[in-house]
Amino acid sequence: MITKDLDFDVVTCLARVREQDQDAARSLVEYLYPTVIRIVRRNLPRRADEEDLAQEIFLKMFEKLDQYKGRVPVEHWVSRIAVNHCLNAIRRQKVRLEWRMADLSEEQAAALEAVTTVGAQEPAPAEVIGARELVDMLLEALSPADRLVIRLLEIEERSIAELRELTGWSAALIRVRAFRARQKLNKRFGKLRRQGRL
Amino acid sequence: MNRLHPDLKRLMAWSSRSLPPEPDGAPFGFAGRVVAAWNPDKTPSLFTEFQRVAWSAAWVSVPVILCGVVFLAGQSQVPEPVAGLSSALRLLVSNFTQ
C-alpha cells in the first residue's frame, strides 16, 4: 500500500530538494514518512529504535536523490531503499537465540496453546501479543532476506509482483526463498510444539 | 509450492493484528531533525576541500602535460641545420656586426 496525497506535487518538490531547498526537503519527509515507517515497523531489528532507522533511511534517500530518474513512483523507490536498509540492519545483528518453553511468557504460551487447539476461537488481546512475539522468535531462525519474504508474503499477504517491486529480486528467487523459509519455519514450529523448544 | 502449517499460518494471522496503527504523519519535529542531519549547506571538511583542490589540480595538469609532450615531440622532428648554410649565416652575422 502506497501513500497517496493528491495535493502534493512530488515532481516539483523533488526539483526543489535537488536545489537544496530545506522546506521542500521537510515536506518530502512528511509525505513519505507513512510509507517508510510502515516498512520499518515490520522489519525492525531487535532493540533498534524505529525513528533512528527511519531517519537513516531518509538520509540515504537524500544522498541518492540524484540517482532517482523518475521511472518509478518515488514511493516505490524509497520503499526499496527502506527494505534494503532494514535488511542490512538485521544482518548486522547476527543474533541467534535458543528459546525453550520455560522461556515463553504467559502470553506466548497462551497463544501457542490457543492456536493449536482444534477449532480455535478469536484470540484474546493478550494472545495476539503472544502470537506476535512467537512469530518474531520463529522468524529469527531465518536469514534476513528469507524473513522479509515470509513477512511480506505470509503476514502482509502481498503478491510476488509486489515483492519484486519492493526488493528488486526475481520472481524465481522470491519463490526459492519462500520455499526454503516455509520448510524451515514448519520444522521449527513442529519442534516448538513437540519438544517445547526452538 | 509448499505451504505453512495451518496452525503456524493462523499464528501469523493473529500476529498481524498486533501491528501498530498506520501513522497519519511524522511525529512533531521529525522532518526538521532529518533535514538538519542532512544539511546540504554544511561547510565542507578540510579533507573534502583538500580532495577537491587535488582533483582540480590533477585535471589542470593533464592538458599541461599533453602540451609539453606535443612540444617535445615537435622539437625532436626539427631537422639539423645544414652545415654550409650555417657557415654562410655566421659570415653574414660577422659582416653585420663589423
Can you give a write-up of this model?
The complex is a heterodimer of chains A (198) and B (98). Chain A contains 9 helices and no strands. With 198 residues, chain A is mainly α. Chain A is elongated, with a radius of gyration of 19 Å. By secondary structure, chain B is mostly helical. Chain B has helices at residues 6-16, 30-38, 46-76, 83-97. The model of chain B has no long low-confidence stretch (mean pLDDT 81).
Q: What's the arrangement of secondary structure elements?
A:
The complex is a heterodimer of chains A (198) and B (98).
Chain A: H1 10-18, H2 22-42, H3 50-63, H4 74-93, H5 106-116, H6 125-139, H7 144-155, H8 160-167, H9 171-195
Chain B: H1 6-16, H2 30-38, H3 46-76, H4 83-97
Features:
heterodimer; A: 198 residues; mainly alpha; Rna Polymerase Sigma Factor, Chain: A; Arc Repressor Mutant, subunit A; 2 domains; 0% strand; B: 98 residues; 4 helices; elongated
Summarize it:
The complex is a heterodimer of chains A (198) and B (98). With 198 residues, chain A is mainly alpha-helical.
Shape of chain B: elongated
The most extensive interface between chains reads: A-B, 47 and 35 residues
Indicate the low-confidence ranges of chain B by residue numbers. none
Assembly state: heterodimer
Main CATH class of the largest domain in chain A: Mainly Alpha
Helices and strands of chain A, in N-to-C order? HHHHHHHHH
The percentage of residues in β strands of chain A lies in under 5%
How many helices of chain A in DSSP terms? 9
Strand tally of chain A is 0
- Please give the domain count of chain A: 2
Instruction: Give the termini separation of chain A.
Output: 33 Å
By DSSP, the count of extended strands of chain B is 0
